[in-house]
Amino acid sequence: MLIPIRDHNPSAQRPYVTYALLAANVVVFVLFFPLYSDEYALMRLFHEWGMLPARLTYGEGYATLISHQFLHGDLLHLGANMLFLWIFGDNMEEVWGHWKFLLFYLVCGLAAAGLQYATEPTSMIPMVGASGAIAGVLGGYFLFYPRARVDMFLFLIIIFRIIPVPAWLVLGSWFVFQILGGLSTPADAGGVAYWAHAGGFIAGVVLCLPLWFRMGGRAYWQRCAGHPPHAEAQYRFVKSDIPKAGRKSRFKPSPWRR
After folding, report:
1. Which helix (H) or strand (E) holds 98?
2. Which of 200, 209, 66, 65 is nearest to 136 (CA)?
3. Is 8 helix (H, G, I), strand (E, B) or coil?
């Protein structure tokens, strides 16, 4: 299992909108948390405020195109989305500026819902979650900082490592998995909204292209070699409490990043 935990791309300004989006999602989850013990009540909430394709087809429920972006299916769903927003949101907010980033985020969420709707416009399965909008953030990051390093936490039974991986590989492979998931999953099936993720990512790239061209396009990449246009963050090494066996020494401490 590989989980992104941070990037090496510090922001020069405080990402107030990213903080506000994180807080809004958490607050909404906490407010409705009592409903999670009652499956019927929870589904009523999701049918009322989640994006339900059939309702849109019948010409109602347009507000859910926004409201669904602040609802989550469970704590893991919320945590995963907020982790990605925390890692990648600050840099895209710096690129766009605060209020334009908020608009960018919401429009990506709309595009994500639009593609998911197009795959099954009569579906009665509600879609909830910020992942479509956050996928747009990932798409923009992929365009601007393809070689920024992202630290991935590797968990494999008893192996624990932190591995720096270029953003183009992390985000590009994530996007490919969404396409493959969408192609292999029936449109009317529940579970992961793969096409919403793909739609949000594509929207993020497309919406960022004019800004990227204004910043120089390929010349911007050439100046920075695909890295952030500033010094990357450095994380100090610390010793691990887990001994490592070696040829010269039976027990040897291993360096870990944090």
Report:
1. helix 98-119
2. 200
3. coil
Confidence of residue 234 (pLDDT cuts 50, 70, 90): confident
The pair of structure tokens assigned to 167 is 């953003």
Helix-helix angle 131-144:194-214, to 10 degrees = 40
Q: What are phi and psi of 19, to 5 degrees?
A: -60, -45
The residue to which tokens 């906490």 are assigned: 30
- pLDDT at residue 87 above 80? yes
**Domain containing residue 236:** 2-257
Contact between 122 and 54 (Cβ < 8 Å): yes
How is residue 96 written in tokens?
């766009």
Task: Collect all residues with Cβ–Cβ distance below 8 Å to 254 and sequence separation of at least 6.
Answer: 239, 240, 242, 244
Ramachandran region, residue 234 (left: φ > 0; alpha: ψ -120 to 50; beta: rest): beta
Report the domain count for the chain.
1
Q: Which two tokens mark 172?
A: 């590009």
Say if CB 32 and CB 43 are below 8 A apart.
Answer: no
Query: Looking at residue 154, which CATH number applies to its domain?
Result: 1.20.1540.10
Q: Hey, what amino acid is at 216?
A: G
Token look-up 């969420």 returns 109
Q: Give the burial class of 132: count Cβ atoms within 10 A of its Cβ; 0-12 exposed, 13-18 middle, 19 or more buried.
A: buried
**Sequence-separated (6 or more) residues with CB below 8 Å from residue 72:** 25, 29, 78, 81, 128, 129, 130
Residues 132/112, Cβ–Cβ less than 8 Å: yes
pLDDT of 125 > 80? The answer is: yes
